[in-house]
Every structure is written in C-alpha cells, then in structure tokens.
Design brief:
This protein folds into three domains: 208 residues, 3-Layer(aba) Sandwich (Rossmann fold); 148 residues, no CATH class; 146 residues, Trna Endonuclease, Chain: A, domain 1. Helix content is 41%, strand content 18%. The chain has a five-stranded parallel sheet with strand order 2-3-4-1-5. The protein starts with 9 loop residues before the first helix and ends with a strand.
Length: 522
Amino acid sequence: MGIYLNPDNTEFYNAVKYSKIYVDKTGLITYTNSVLFGEHRNICVSRPRRFGKSMAANMLVAYYSRGCNSKKLFHGLKISRQAGFEEHLNHYNVIHLNIQRFLKRTQTVHDMLRTLNVKVVRELKKAYASIEYYEDDLVSVLEQIFAETKEKFVFVIDEWDCVFRMKPNDSDGQKEYLDFYRDLLKNQPYVVLAYMTGILPIKKYGEHSALNMFDEFSMTNANPIEEYTGFTEDEVRVLCQNGGMDFERMKEWYDGYQLGHFSVYNPKSVVEAIERKKIDNYWTQTETYESIRTYIEMNYDGLRDTIVELIAGERKKIDTTTFSNDMVSFHIQDDVLTLLIHLGYLAYDFDTQEVYIPNCEIREQFISTVRVMGWNDVVKSLQLSEQLLQATLKMNESEVADIIEKVHQENASVLKYNDENSLSCVLSLAYYSAKKEYIMCRELAGGKGFADLVFIPKKKCDKPAFLIELKWNKDVKTAIAQIKDRQYVECLNGYTGKVILVGLNYDKITKKHECVMESIEL
C-alpha cells in the first residue's frame, strides 16, 4: 500500500460513512467492469467543478485497489448486487494520480512530469524489489514489471486537464504532457483500465490529438453513463422528501442539464440547499463572476447579443465540434459557448444541438456578470420587468405598451427589430421577473394552434395566468380575437381562475407598440 500505488480506501470510506448526504453512484463500476482489458478500457470523463469527479475517482480506487479490503464498505451499495462484484473487487494494482497536486508543487509542466515519474517509480521499485531495472522512466519500469511478472494496472487519474487550465499558453508543456499519456497508456499491455477525470475533454492538438484510445464522456455527450454525471431527478426527489425541501423549487434552481434521458442536477448546490434548508446560489459562489466575464468580453461573432438572448430564455443552435478543448484557442462564437458548456455555465441539448442557460442559479450569475460589465441596456430592461408584470396584472394597456417599447429600443442592436423572433425575445427579457412566480412557455399548444407566450402560475402563486399573442403591422384587436377563436386557453389544462388575455402589435414602420387586454374566468 502506497501513496500512489495501491492506495487504501480512506477517501471513499469517509465520503460514504461521514457525509451527511451520500448518493450511491457505484453503478458506474458496473460500466467500468464491462470494459476492463478491452478496446474501450481507456475512459476520459469531463464535467464541471464540484460535480463529483473526485468522488468517482476515489470510489474506483477503493473498489479496484489491492491496497485495501472494501467488501464491507461496498456492502449494500448498488454494485454489490451486480454479477462480477467480487471477481474484480480489490483485485488489481492501482496507480492513483491527482495531477493538480503535482502541478501546484512545481514551476513547469516538465518539472511536474519529472516529479511524478520519480515518486511513482520509487513506489513501484519498492513493491517489485526483486526486479533488476535498466531504466528509470515510468513507462520503462511498468513495461519491465509486466514483462517479468505479467502484472497489470488500473490507472485512475484525477484533474488530468489542469495543465490546460493552469498553464493555458504553455503549448510546449502541453504537448509534452500529451506525449506522456500516449506513451504511458496507448496500446500498453499492462493497462487493465485507465479512468481520467477533468473539466475539459481531451485537447485537440494536431498529431497530439491522437489520444484516440480514449472513449470520452462530457457535458455535450455523456452516453451511456449520463446518470453518473450529477444527481438525477429521482435521486433529488428522494433527497427532498428526506430533507423536507420543496422539490419543485429545487428543480427550478439546480436542474437543467439534459444528458440523454436524464435530467441532471448540480450536486454541490443540491447538497448545500438541503443541509442549510435554504435555496441559494451555492455553486456559483465558489467562483467570482470573472470566470465567465473573461469569455463574454471576447464578443466573438456578436457573443454579447447571444448572451442577452440566453438570459431572456432563448436557445441557440451551435456546433460544438470546432472547440479545441482548451482555454485560449477560440475562433468563433461557438467555441466560447462550448467552453461554457464544459464549465457548467451553459447546458447543451444533444438532440437539437442547442445551448441554453440551465437554471435560476446560473441565470442569476449571468445577470450579476452583465451588471458588473456595465451592460446598462440589459440591466434597465431587467429592472423594468417587475414594473411590467405589475402593469400586466393591473391590465394597464398603455403602461405595458410603453415598457415593452422601452425594452425593445434599449436592446435594438441585439434583438433586431425586424427579425421574426425579436419581439418574442424582447418579451422574454422584459418579463424576466415573472419567472419567479410563473412558468413561461413559448409556442404552447392549445386549442387550434399555438399560443405565442403563456405564463402559468406556479404552485402557491395566487396571481392570474396570462396569455400573450403577438402581431406585426395588424390591428391589435385581432390578437385577442385569435386567442378566443383558436381557443388557446385550452393550453391551461387543469388551471382554474382568472386569465388575462394580452394582445400586442408592433408596427415595423413607426416602431410603436400597442396593447389591448381582456380577462376571462376558467
């Protein structure tokens, strides 16, 4: 048993036995067991900070390492009920490396690799003292051990990408670092399993992108291990029941990462909210707004405009394949948006290839960022949103039209006046504060068509529902008539009470807005 070679199970033991909240993710081991020795035995899992990367790494160490006996520790957990559980339990030599710890102790990537080599080789030579070694580099030592003993190894490498995050401009060091992994792991007969974790996927670097022996699982495509990326909806529902928390509020604040068939929640925030019995910004508080401000300020291809649209609740189709998987190689807007997906500030729908802000916690972080950045037009629009909601509820037609006109004018450079989707986006931004008490739906099916915008009161909200129909260069009264004729209120299935019908018209020539309103009872 050593520090790096065949460590014990202390870290995972502490997580299971002493954490106030522990969610069983040992099902991941079922997957890793299924790829042992095979062509898919090299795995790189990337996900945002505080999404359980180190927990998973420590779990695999506790399960595979010969340096401990973890049968009692895993008893009752999901993996203990799977075939092959005891066959692989504590059966392998494990080399566990946290690259960030090595990098922080050294000045350069070269020095870091040399230190890593010395420390791990020292433990290997001690464990296999009977072998006469001819070379002192890690790869040669492992090859010699395998040649003489046929011993094989599981590699668990945490924070593998820290070189690209902490040394973003050191291209020579990064290439040396990638060469190290290629020599250590690619086509090596001593590798049973290599499991790497990080925030960024594997760096694309010309010939150095040839770490093609890895299967990658990331925030853009985690199939088939999506449920181990964060907390699933079922897991959070149980945690809320046990912790006496409102599940719907938890969903609104920390959900939104859609990975395959799983709706994934931010683990850090869920745990903090349950332990403190309070919904708040927990994950975003662990970093300053500077972490996203840097990238927004680049403004590639009008990125600023896209951020405003995302804050308003819009989605944007992007191409994630152009991203180089580092912190500096940006060529188009999609590269920056893809980085924000991997950092956890944006979510990605694989089926539609759209990016969006996942939840309230992240949206508030974006708003704080643009406020500090001096985006006065956006800030003013958000400040007017509460006034707009109250004017709508009071059915003050002229005030509603005036506020929407102000928001439209202040964001004219972003939300192009004559774009067909611009007014809908304006309204999503203008009614931002309504999202605290309402579920906002665009193009919601009901009756004989689709209502443009529908605001449905959340549970415990005693305010009326309201529907908005948009028109361009028309008589504004035709908007209300369309709501009635096509029976859009049927989209409010199950709702009873007052419903405000809102008709809005925008004149493209005068750039004026008109509003008419009626109310009905359901």
